[in-house]
Amino acid sequence: MKRALLGLAIATLVVACATTTSPTGRTQYVGAVSQEQLNQLGAQAFAEAKAKEKLSTDARQNTYVRCVVDAITRQLPAGWQTQWEVAVFQDDSPNAFALPGGKIGVNTGIFTVAKNQDQLAAVIAHEIGHVVSRHHDERITKQQGTSTLLGIGSAILGSAYGSGAGNAAGQIGGAAAQTFYLLPNSRTQETEADVVGQQLAAKAGFDPRQAVNLWQNMIAAGGSRPPQWLSTHPDPQSRINELGARAGSLMPTFEQARASGHTPKCGS
C-alpha cells in the first residue's frame, strides 16, 4: 500500500510537469506554474525590490545599462522581445538579476568589476540567459516536486515507525535533497546561463572574450566562498576556463555581428 502511494505521488508529479528542451539541448522538467504566473511573480518581486531598495538617480548609469540591455534583448527570439524594464539600484554589492516578465535589476556595485560595456554585457546577458532558459520555472517545478515527495516519505515512515522517525526523515531528506539534488541543478543552470549569455552578447556585438576579464575582476574583488559542492555557482577558475574556450568559437559570431552593423556604443 505504501509503495502504491509513493508510486501514485510520483506519477502525479510527472503528469503535472512537462518535458521540454533548454536552449543548449538539455532536457528540462517545467510546468509547475504557467508563464503568466511566472511573469506575475517576476513583476511582483521587481516592484518589491524597487520599493525596498534605493534607486540610482544617476542618468549616465541608467542610460548606460539601458543601452546594453536594449542591444542584447534585440537578439532574443521573437517571443522574448518584450520591452524589458530596467532598474539600477544604489547598492555596493556587485550583482545583477533578471526576472520573468522582462525585468532587469543592476546594482551600482557591478561597475566596480564590469569595467567596460562588454563586461557589463556579459553580466546582463548571463542573467537574461536564466530567463530565456526557463530556469525559474524549472527551479519551482523541482522544488515543489521534492517537497511533495519528502512529505510523502515522512508520512510513510511516520505511519510505520512513529512520528519521530517521520520528522527526522523529513529533516535528513531535506538536507540531502538540498545538497545532492537542488544545489547541483543550480550549478547546471549557472553554466547554461553562461553559454546562452555569451552567445547573446556576441550576437549583439559585444566581445565574448571580455566575459573572462569580468570573472578575473570578480575573483580579484574576491572574498571567501563555500566549497564548490555546496555552492550554487561553478568554481570560478573552472568557469573562466570554460568562458575562455567558448569565446574562441564565438569570435566569428561577434565579427559577423559587427560587420552587420551591431556595434554598441554604450559607454564606459
Number of strand elements: 5
Question: Structurally, how many domains make up the residues?
Answer: 1
Mean pLDDT over the residues: 78
Strand content: 5-15%
- Give the termini separation: 65 Å
Per the principal axes of the C-alpha atoms, what is the gross shape?
globular
Instruction: Write down the secondary-structure element order.
Output: HEEHHEEEHHHHH
* Tally of contiguous helical segments: 8
Largest sheet: 3 strands, mixed
Helix content: 55-70%
Rg of Cα set: 21 Å
Structural class: mainly alpha
Pfam family, one: Peptidase_M48
Organism: Lysobacter soli
GO biological process, one term: proteolysis involved in protein catabolic process
InterPro entries: Mito/Outer_Membr_Metalloprot (IPR051156), Peptidase_M48 (IPR001915)
